[in-house]
């Protein structure tokens, strides 16, 4: 729904022989009224995210956003992603609001690593059959995450598509657009050198990756059973994707220069960290430097997965990595007590950057 979040045209509605309104569209499986009900339920939450730059209300064909106070060399940064199969597990346990937080925070983190700050977010929700309360709960979660980031929920689409999605299925995706001055663009690979430190920022759990495996592993298990820390299994596995904007703002306020950031998503540390490193450097990671979440230990035990594979599937407790100069270690820990020194950059003779794990 392009925030008129319209699902369809009403021109197919007509009166049946009893005088009651019927809809050929509804008979085909698309309920316009359900979509309108969902919009009514979410309106106030969406408007609560509007910043002064938003120039169109809900109901416009497109969202309008004024670009003011631009830096000298502005760059727009955009990223699109989806929640993936986590939405299936969340739906089975009516945890819809967390899914809204998931998609916003995942997208936010993907532009933060390029030095951008978010301007606005657009969402896409599709299902075989719309349940207004569920759709609204997802959008409420999005709105909560957008407000926390100072990001406007500018528009979106809600699609009811029987025959495309199987019964009970849905999909949630989104796009974020942010702004960065070219001088502040990350990463800065030419500034990286041997001896630079790698600081890990803790994740809240699996975030939004590996859920096809997770759902398979958890099938038939008691999801209310507590982990060693007392948190129910279902809460640990569905914890919303963490936003790292507050962490980065604290580093910025402390005057700490960041050379690069890597969002640890699908592919884990092994695939994501090399994306920001220059040739001739190797990331040496000490896997004993942080405490891996209990949920990952359980998933490994129940799945029979080898540790090496797990580090290519899951974030294993580290959701973002920052490359910082060695002499900034103390200021980083002062600004971010939960930041963990997990490794260093070292010289390498390899033509491509890589990650080496040490236990």
From TrEMBL:
Substrates-to-products reaction catalysed: 2-formamido-N(1)-(5-O-phospho-beta-D-ribosyl)acetamidine + ATP = 5-amino-1-(5-phospho-beta-D-ribosyl)imidazole + ADP + phosphate + H(+)
Identify which top EC class this enzyme belongs to.
ligase
Q: Could you tell me where the Basic and acidic residues compositional bias lies? A: 1-16
Pathway assignment reads: Purine metabolism; IMP biosynthesis via de novo pathway; 5-amino-1-(5-phospho-D-ribosyl)imidazole from N(2)-formyl-N(1)-(5-phospho-D-ribosyl)glycinamide: step 2/2
Presence of keyword Protein transport: no
Enzyme Commission number(s) of this protein = 6.3.3.1
Similarity comment: family membership: Belongs to the AIR synthase family.
**GO function terms (MF aspect):** ATP binding; phosphoribosylamine-glycine ligase activity; phosphoribosylformylglycinamidine cyclo-ligase activity
Residues of the region (Disordered) are: 1-26
Instruction: Report the NCBIfam families cross-referenced here.
Output: purM
* Stretches assigned to the PurM-like C-terminal domain: 193-352
Record's keyword terms, sorted = ATP-binding, Cytoplasm, Ligase, Nucleotide-binding, Purine biosynthesis
Q: Where in the cell is it found?
A: Cytoplasm
Q: Protein name, please?
A: Phosphoribosylformylglycinamidine cyclo-ligase
Checking Pfam families in the record gives:
AIRS, AIRS_C
Question: The PurM-like N-terminal domain covers which part of the protein?
Answer: 69-180
Chief site of localization? cytoplasm
Q: Which GO terms describe its biological process?
A: 'de novo' IMP biosynthetic process; adenine biosynthetic process
């Amino acid at each position: 729904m392009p925030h008129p979040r319209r699902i369809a045209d009403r021109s197919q509605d007509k009166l049946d022989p009893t005088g009651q309104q019927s809809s050929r569209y509804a008979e085909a499986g698309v309920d316009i009224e359900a979509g309108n009900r969902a919009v009514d339920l979410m309106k106030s939450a969406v408007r609560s995210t509007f910043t002064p730059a938003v120039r169109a209300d809900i109901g416009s064909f497109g969202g309008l956003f004024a670009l003011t106070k631009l830096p000298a060399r502005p760059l727009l940064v955009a990223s699109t992603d989806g929640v993936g199969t986590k939405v299936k597990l969340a739906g089975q346990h009516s945890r819809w609001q967390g899914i809204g937080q998931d998609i916003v925070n995942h997208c936010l983190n993907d532009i933060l690593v390029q030095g951008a700050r978010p301007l606005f977010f657009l969402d896409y929700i599709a299902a075989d059959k719309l349940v207004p309360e569920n759709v609204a709960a997802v959008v409420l979660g999005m709105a909560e995450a957008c407000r926390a980031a100072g990001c406007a929920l500018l528009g979106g689409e809600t699609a009811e598509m029987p025959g495309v999605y199987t019964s009970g299925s849905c999909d949630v995706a989104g796009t974020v657009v942010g702004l960065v001055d070219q001088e502040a663009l990350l990463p800065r690979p030419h500034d990286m050198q041997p001896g630079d430190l790698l600081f890990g920022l803790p994740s809240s759990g699996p975030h939004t990756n590996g859920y096809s495996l997770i759902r398979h592993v958890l099938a038939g298990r008691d999801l209310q059973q507590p982990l060693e820390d007392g948190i129910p299994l279902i809460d640990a596995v569905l914890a919303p994707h963490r936003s790292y904007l507050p962490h980065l703002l604290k580093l910025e306020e402390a005057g700490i220069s960041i050379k690069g950031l890597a969002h640890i998503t699908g592919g884990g540390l092994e695939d994501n960290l090399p994306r920001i490193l220059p040739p001739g450097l190797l990331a040496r990671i000490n896997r004993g430097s942080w405490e891996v979440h209990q949920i990952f230990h359980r998933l490994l035990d129940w799945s029979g997965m080898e540790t090496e594979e797990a580090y290519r599937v899951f974030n294993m407790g580290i959701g973002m990595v920052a490359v910082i100069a060695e002499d900034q270690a103390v200021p980083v820990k002062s600004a971010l007590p939960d930041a963990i020194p997990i490794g260093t950059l070292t010289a390498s003779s390899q033509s491509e950057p890589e990650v080496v794990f040490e236990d």
